[in-house]
Design goal:
alpha/beta, UDP N-Acetylglucosamine Acyltransferase, domain 1, 5 helices, 15 strands, globular
Length: 203
């Protein structure tokens, strides 16, 4: 997965334009500001991008990082979700409803990904007989749809264009364009068409 592999996959400003497109079907600075003011679930995405932009820059914007981090903490609290600002997320990220959503900072998320309320992307630890702990984090490829209360944990890759059904518990990698369901999750359909509402036009 090339786009989501980097620490910050593309310019935070370019990613924010793509995020805005997912919300409105088009993008402009005015629409981004509108979403930041009016959308409870879009606001944490904006604050995440601002934190990442400040962290990458020098000068005045870098000095603003502590304030951006405080605002991001507030936006996540107000939205009822946990989305660490360091999480590498490509453009076109969409949060639907949002309540109870949890994302670990070690997760990598591709472009045009949709997450619903209660979904969890988390760490999974494996402890060997000698007590050594190994931690793994999911990689979510482009155009993935993650339904309400789905749980994806550990060193797994969710293939491009896949759909994770509501309530699925995923601990193994999922092939591209697959639908998985159940606990433990199994592939119930292959060759799925990606479910991406208002996909952002990204290279």
């Amino acid at each position: 997965m090339s786009n989501a592999a980097a620490k910050f996959p593309r310019s935070p400003w370019a990613a924010l334009r793509a995020d805005t497109h997912r919300l409105y079907g088009r993008s402009s600075a005015a629409l981004t500001c509108k979403g930041a003011l009016l959308s409870r679930t879009f606001r944490p995405v904006v604050s995440l991008r601002l934190c990442q932009a400040a962290a990458q820059s020098g000068g005045v914007l870098r000095v603003a990082l502590p304030l951006c981090k405080l605002w991001h903490r507030w936006t996540c609290g107000a939205a009822g979700l946990d989305l660490p600002w360091r999480t590498p997320i490509d453009g076109g990220f969409a949060i639907t409803h949002g309540w109870g959503l949890v994302v670990n900072a070690g997760v990598r998320i591709g472009s045009n990904v949709t997450m619903f309320h209660g979904a969890t992307l988390g760490r999974r630890d494996r402890i060997s007989a000698d007590g050594q702990r190994t931690s793994g984090y999911p990689v979510i490829e482009n155009d993935v749809w993650i339904g309400p209360h789905a749980v994806i944990v550990g060193d797994v890759t969710i293939g491009q264009g896949s759909r994770i059904a509501a309530g699925a518990f995923v601990t193994h990698s999922v092939p591209p364009h697959s639908m998985v369901s159940g606990n433990p999750a199994v592939v119930v359909r292959s060759g799925c068409t990606p479910d991406v509402a208002q996909p952002a036009p990204l290279d």
